[in-house]
């Protein structure tokens, strides 16, 4: 049995005493709890400024706007946003590396990058101010999870090009918490530091949190840990998983959302209400659109999430299509925050899979297969075993790839595994199957079988 | 002086090998010799049959990936150390052996060794000089 872990004593740093949200922690209460009129006023002003700036500084946006006959002066408020064209991940790839840079390179201090291959990489640039604002967003998420300067924030997201580690690390610094930059892997050391240094807030992927929880119980160390909360993102997870992690670790588990293209984690985060993620609307304007028609949908309707960043200096994105399907809600939240809430992603409007926190497109796998001499008839099976994602590619054997020498076939198979690893950055199990055995529906192969059932509703 | 070995790809899943043998049986194919090379993920069934061409057609009909490879089937002298002698001769002659397996003929109670080498002619040159005989495809059926 766990003792109910106390959050730290009531603080006065929120300036919110005296109302029913006094137990809630905020990093920037005057922004996080601002009136919706105030938020709207910030958005109107910042949007107009951003559009003017990208029109002047970025040839890509200027050309696109000119083509559609839109003048930057026409964009005066959020109401005008719909006039602007969408931006897609393909646009970002085409613009690699500097095509969308809106600030002088000499003002940039950092890059981060999406997972995936050279061909599929997107590089995002940050000025020092961009980093500060991003870290503030992460600080809001940590505060919402109860984090203060008394806390020990244990970050086992990957560091490096991946935004998970750097984002939460920076947010924890902003709050003034003791930050453990653990990075991923080495579970033994993670648990030891957790026990010895009294980590109170855990930041990692939900699947790793579940794995850690199990490892802690296996070692009988569940009473040695002092965790009170976890901030888990970078992959989809279910309510069952949340309850499981919360029970095993004796914590409250919060979701966090973000994309490298937009900044990284902290674009939105869960509060004590645990019923959706507040989008940091002073930095990002969120829209939900019909992915087929591009039509903007009202609150409560399911569609593709589109972001416009309105405070970015180096890499502002206008109407960026995330391909994540979700629902927005402006309903009043019990936490006192006023920023719009988004549901967990309910699916994708493209065929991207997230496996072990890495973005995987079936087309990438197809490219590797063809390069290695295998047919493009394949099936991807994604599952979850011991709280860790698994991915298997079934490939049909052909006359050309066959040999009477098992060593030769095994060697070709090994090369394929290596090429997939080089392309995706993760291990993919390859299964060679007999020709014409991969299930087809209406003549077309079913490319992906996701057994994880991650998307609810 | 070679025999035609048929190699068939099989998935390493329960029942797959039984499926293949059952299918061949239905088509009245007698396997004279059989060997299986397995990895964790797949297996390769190698067999010697009377009619290699017909067998490979039947296999392809059922969607199997199969190939025909000429291999040597040499008669093993009935004396101790004869396998070692053969391997040594090939090794000394610079012939690389990829794999091998044995089969017995009920008629003559003679053991045969199937040898898969890159250069059949060279291997046969070496072995025949030492009086070792190989059986050819046409003679396979007569061994039973
Ligand atoms: Zn506190
Ligand atoms: Zn809330």
List keywords for this structure.
heterodimer; A: 457 residues; alpha/beta; 9-stranded mixed β-sheet; 4-stranded antiparallel β-sheet; 29% helix; disordered N terminus; B: 144 residues; VC0802-like; 2 domains; 5 helices; 7 strands; globular; binds zinc ion
Mean pLDDT of chain B: 90
Shape of chain A: globular
Low-pLDDT runs of chain B: none
Q: Hey, which two chains have the biggest interface?
A: A-B, 20 and 22 residues
Structural class of chain B: alpha+beta
Number of domain units of chain B:
2
* Average pLDDT taken over every residue of chain A: 90
Approximately how much helix is present in the residues of chain A?
25-40%
Q: How far apart, in Å, are the first and last alpha carbons of chain A? A: 32 Å
- CATH homologous superfamily grouping of the largest domain in chain B: VC0802-like
Strand content of chain A is 15-25%
CATH fold assignment of the largest domain in chain B:
VC0802-like
Tell me what you see in this structure.
The complex is a heterodimer of chains A (457) and B (144). By secondary structure, chain A is of the alpha/beta class. Chain A is built from eleven helices and 23 strands. Chain A starts with 28 loop residues before the first helix and ends in a 7-residue tail after the last strand. Residues 1-21 of chain A have low confidence and may be disordered. In chain B, strands 1, 2, 3, 4, 5, 6 and 7 form a seven-stranded antiparallel sheet that branches. In chain B, 29% of the residues are buried. The mean pLDDT of chain B is 90. The site of one zinc ion has 5 residues of chain A, from loops.
Topology:
The complex is a heterodimer of chains A (457) and B (144).
Chain A: H1 29-32, H2 36-57, H3 59-67, H4 89-94, E1 108-113, E2 123-127, H5 128-144, E3 152-155, H6 164-175, E4 178-181, H7 187-196, E5 201-204, H8 206-218, E6 229-233, H9 239-249, E7 252-259, E8 264-270, E9 277-279, E10 284-289, E11 303-309, E12 320-326, E13 328-329, E14 341-342, E15 347-348, E16 353-355, E17 358-360, H10 362-371, E18 378-385, E19 388-396, H11 406-424, E20 429-433, E21 440-441, E22 444-445, E23 448-450
Parallel strand pairs in A: 3-4, 3-5, 5-6, 6-7, 18-23, 19-20
Antiparallel strand pairs in A: 1-2, 7-8, 8-9, 9-14, 10-11, 11-12, 12-15, 13-14, 16-17, 18-19, 21-22
Chain B: E1 3-11, H1 16-26, E2 31-38, E3 42-49, H2 52-61, E4 66-75, H3 82-92, E5 97-105, E6 110-117, H4 120-129, E7 134-135, H5 137-140
Antiparallel strand pairs in B: 1-3, 1-4, 2-3, 4-6, 4-7, 5-6
The structure holds zinc ion (2 copies).
The site of one zinc ion has 6 residues of chain A, from loops.
């Amino acid at each position: 049995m766990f003792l109910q872990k106390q959050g730290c004593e009531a603080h006065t740093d929120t300036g919110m005493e005296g109302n029913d949200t006094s137990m809630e922690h905020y990093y920037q209460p005057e922004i996080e709890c601002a009136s919706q009129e105030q938020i709207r006023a910030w958005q109107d002003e910042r949007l107009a400024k951003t559009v003017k700036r990208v029109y002047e500084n970025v040839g890509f946006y200027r050309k696109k706007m000119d083509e559609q006959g839109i003048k930057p002066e026409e964009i005066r408020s959020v109401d005008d946003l719909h006039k602007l064209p969408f931006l897609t991940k393909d646009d970002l790839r085409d613009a690699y590396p500097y095509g969308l840079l809106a600030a002088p390179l000499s003002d940039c201090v950092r890059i981060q990058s999406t997972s995936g291959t050279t061909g599929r990489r997107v590089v995002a640039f940050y000025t020092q101010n961009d980093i500060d604002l991003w870290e503030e967003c992460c600080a809001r998420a940590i505060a919402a999870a109860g984090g203060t300067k008394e806390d020990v924030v244990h970050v086992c997201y990957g560091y490096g090009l991946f935004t998970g580690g750097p984002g939460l690390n920076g947010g924890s610094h902003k709050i003034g918490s003791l930050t453990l930059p653990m990075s991923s892997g080495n579970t033994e050391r993670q648990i030891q530091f957790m026990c010895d240094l009294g980590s109170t807030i855990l930041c990692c992927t939900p699947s790793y949190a579940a794995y850690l929880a199990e490892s802690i119980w296996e070692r009988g160390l569940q009473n040695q840990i002092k965790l009170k909360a976890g901030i888990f993102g970078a992959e989809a997870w279910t309510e069952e998983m949340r309850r499981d992690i919360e029970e095993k670790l004796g914590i409250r588990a919060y979701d966090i959302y973000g994309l490298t293209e937009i900044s990284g984690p902290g674009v939105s985060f869960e509060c004590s209400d645990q019923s959706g993620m507040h989008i940091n609307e002073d930095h990002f304007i969120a829209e939900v659109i019909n992915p087929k028609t591009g039509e903007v949908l009202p609150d409560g309707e399911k569609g593709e999430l589109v972001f416009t960043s309105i405070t970015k200096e180096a890499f502002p994105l206008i109407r960026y299509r995330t391909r994540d399907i979700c629902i927005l809600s402006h309903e009043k939240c019990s936490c006192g925050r006023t920023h719009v809430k988004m549901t967990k992603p309910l699916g994708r409007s493209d065929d991207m899979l997230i496996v072990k926190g890495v973005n995987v497109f079936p087309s990438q796998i197809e490219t590797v297969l063809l390069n290695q001499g295998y047919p493009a008839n394949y099936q991807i099976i994604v599952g979850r075993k011991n709280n860790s994602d698994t991915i298997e590619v079934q490939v049909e054997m052909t006359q050309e790839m066959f040999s009477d020498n098992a060593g030769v076939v095994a060697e070709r198979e090994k090369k394929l595994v290596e090429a997939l690893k080089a392309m995706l950055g993760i291990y993919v199990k390859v299964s060679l199957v007999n020709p014409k055995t991969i299930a087809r529906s209406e003549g077309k192969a079913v490319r992906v079988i996701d057994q994880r059932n991650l998307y609810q509703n | 002086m070679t025999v035609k070995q048929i190699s068939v790809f099989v998935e390493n899943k329960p029942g797959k090998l039984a499926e293949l043998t059952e299918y061949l049986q239905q088509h009245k194919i007698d396997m004279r010799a059989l060997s299986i090379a397995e990895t964790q993920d797949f297996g390769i069934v190698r067999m010697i049959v009377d009619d290699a061409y017909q067998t490979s057609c039947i296999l392809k009909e059922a969607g199997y990936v199969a190939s025909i490879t000429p291999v040597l089937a040499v008669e093993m002298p009935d004396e101790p150390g004869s396998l070692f002698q053969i391997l040594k001769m090939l090794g000394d002659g610079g012939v690389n052996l990829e794999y091998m397996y044995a089969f017995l003929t009920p008629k003559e109670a003679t053991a045969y060794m199937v040898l898969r080498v890159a250069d059949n002619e060279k291997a046969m040159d070496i072995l025949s000089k030492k009086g070792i005989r190989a059986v050819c495809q046409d003679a396979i059926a007569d061994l039973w």
